[in-house]
Amino acid sequence: MAQTQTFSGNSFKGTGVALVTPMTKNGYIDFTGLADLVEHVINNGVDFIVALGTTAETPTLSMDEKKEVLMSILTHTAGRVPVVCGVGGNNTAEVIEQLNHFCVPGVSGILSVVPYYNKPSQEGIYQHFKAIAGACKLPIILYNVPGRTVANMLPATVVRLAKDCPNIVAIKEASGNIPQCMELVATKPEGFVVLSGDDNLILPQMAVGFEGVISVAANCFTKDFCAMVKLGLNGDFAAARTLHYKLLSGIDLLFAEGNPTGVKFVLSEMGLIRNSFRLPIVAASEGLQGNIRKYLESHT
């Protein structure tokens, strides 16, 4: 009798980091900078890495570049932490085709965003992810970010997918809607992992049952951010709160002019990567750069 494959979201608890894509001043991928960034985040405590998320400026990368970035991350991670690969879009058939390119050895899971622009119904969202789950042999993390996609995946749809698709094991919930977050935690199946997609909300979200985060801030404020999450998961909210308030204004600055504008500037100030982008993302304004420098001077 054939055995049913079992899936778990346990590999995706704690702090995941949505890696930026370092670039040269001419807009080419800086693979040396990418290797240095992988070392930085692993050495400072991340629990897993997300490659080719939105923070990676993935929409501006060609298919060949995406493959090269993923393979570079896998090479330099060398199995030390799990690697999740972002594979999403608003064309279900195309997403399924992309799975053939990115479900490679070394990838521990797939992060897939709610379809953007199309504004699908809850049934459309359900059928989209059910089709992806049926075509994928890896664990899948759903990604709900209505501020970017417009469509909001409701808790009932998430729970339905979690129950019907064994390899859908977690969600990155970035609605910022705390009542929705609490409904999700209260109604999810046992073992299904709820992660935050909002760096500034992870502490209160852990208090209501979130088990981690996929973070932008963990690229640059890695040590403190990972420590805060670990303290919160261990129930030490007093100590976690101290780090939360230390980081809070810095996190807000990261997103003041879009993502990854702020985080790349901080990483450039740290000497890890260049402050380079591909359009339509541009460098931080002089005003924001000054505010970030003031924050770094007073908090590091």
Brief synopsis:
By secondary structure, this protein is α/β, with parallel strands linked by helices. Helices cover 45% and strands 13% of the residues.
Structure explained in plain terms:
The structure is a single chain. The protein is an alpha/beta fold and 300 residues long. It has a single domain, classed as Aldolase class I (TIM Barrel). It has helices spanning 31-43, 63-77, 92-102, 122-135, 146-149, 155-164, 178-187, 202-207, 222-233, 237-254, 261-269, 286-299, and strands spanning 14-18, 48-51, 83-86, 107-113, 140-144, 168-173, 193-196, 212-215. The chain has an 8-stranded parallel beta sheet with strand order 7-6-5-4-3-2-1-8. Helix 1 (31-43) crosses helix 2 (63-77), helix 9 (222-233) runs antiparallel to helix 10 and helix 10 (237-254) packs antiparallel against helix 12. The longest helix is centred in the C-terminal third of the chain and has 18 residues, at 237-254. It is globular and about 50 Å long. The mean pLDDT is 96.
What CATH first level would be assigned? Alpha Beta
The largest beta-sheet arranges its strands as 7-6-5-4-3-2-1-8
Q: How large, in whole angstroms, is the Cα Rg?
A: 18 Å
Q: What oligomeric state do these chains adopt?
A: single chain
Strand content: 5-15%
N- to C-terminal separation?
59 Å
Number of continuous helical runs: 12
**Number of domains in the coordinates?**
1
Structural class: alpha/beta
Q: How many DSSP-defined strands?
A: 8
The stretches of 5 or more residues where confidence is low (pLDDT under 50) are none
Give the helices and strands as they follow along the chain. EHEHEHEHEHHEHEHEHHHH
Largest sheet geometry: 8 strands, parallel
- Average pLDDT for all residues: 96
Residue share in helices?
Answer: 40-55%
